[in-house]
């Protein structure tokens, strides 16, 4: 749901891992419950990489969710930003890692993410959108964005690279900031979500 500031509608979209959270919860879950050696392998596409990474997780879904509740830390300013702008959270991550943390924090949010079927033989990733993105030719988050503009997007990683380019205003940190700078795409840096809230005020 969009929010209004000074009469202008703002459709704020937040990536989850590394944007809403201090650390990448999916990466940490794979390190804890899967095989971190998968990060050393090379894959032809982001979709194949993510599928392989998630496929190394062999723990029970409830155990992974309980771990997330105990270990995932939110970036400073999360509550204030969510309360004021009611953002859409668009993630390549998994509900088993995201929804329990939102519940822990008492936050109801529009979450659009991938899913996975836990299995002792390795979790099976299910992408939110069928097929590949017509813009980048990979499985990405662009098609999960709100239809209405202007879109304000905040992200940090490789999974944001295509969706970010569809936004009207960009906040970026870490890998995404470096990527955008290398392409000459303007963005506003952030480390805390308080900085984004202040910039939008």
Structure, explained:
- Helices cover 35% and strands 17% of the residues.
- The chain is globular, with a radius of gyration of 16 Å.
- By secondary structure, it is an alpha/beta fold.
- It has helices at residues 16-20, 25-33, 46-55, 61-71, 78-85, 95-104, 174-182, 193-200; strands at residues 3-5, 8-14, 88-91, 110-113, 115-117, 124-126, 151-155, 169-172, 188-189.
- The mean pLDDT is 95.
- The protein has one domain (3-200): Rossmann fold (3-Layer(aba) Sandwich), CATH 3.40.50.1000.
- Strands 1, 2, 3, 4, 7, 8 and 9 form a 7-stranded mixed beta sheet that branches.
- It has 8 helices and 9 strands.
- Helix 5 packs parallel to helix 8.
């Amino acid at each position: 749901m969009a929010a209004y500031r000074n009469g202008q509608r703002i459709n704020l979209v937040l990536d989850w891992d590394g944007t809403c959270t201090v650390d990448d919860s999916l990466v940490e879950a794979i390190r804890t419950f899967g095989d971190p050696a998968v990060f050393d392998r090379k894959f032809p596409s982001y979709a194949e990489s993510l599928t392989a990474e998630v496929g190394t997780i062999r723990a029970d879904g409830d155990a992974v969710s309980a771990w997330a509740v105990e270990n995932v830390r939110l970036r400073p300013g999360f509550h204030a930003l969510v309360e004021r702008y009611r953002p859409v959270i668009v993630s390549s991550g998994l509900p088993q890692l995201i929804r329990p943390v939102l519940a822990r924090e008492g936050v109801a949010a529009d979450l659009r993410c991938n899913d996975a079927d836990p299995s002792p033989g390795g979790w099976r990733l299910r992408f939110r959108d069928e097929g590949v993105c017509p813009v980048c030719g990979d499985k990405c988050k662009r098609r999960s964005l709100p239809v209405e503009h202007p879109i304000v997007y905040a992200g940090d990683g490789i999974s944001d690279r295509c969706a970010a380019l569809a936004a009207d205003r960009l906040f970026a940190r870490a890998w995404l900031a470096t990527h955008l700078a290398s392409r000459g795409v303007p963005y506003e840096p952030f480390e805390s979500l308080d900085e984004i809230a202040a910039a939008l005020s």
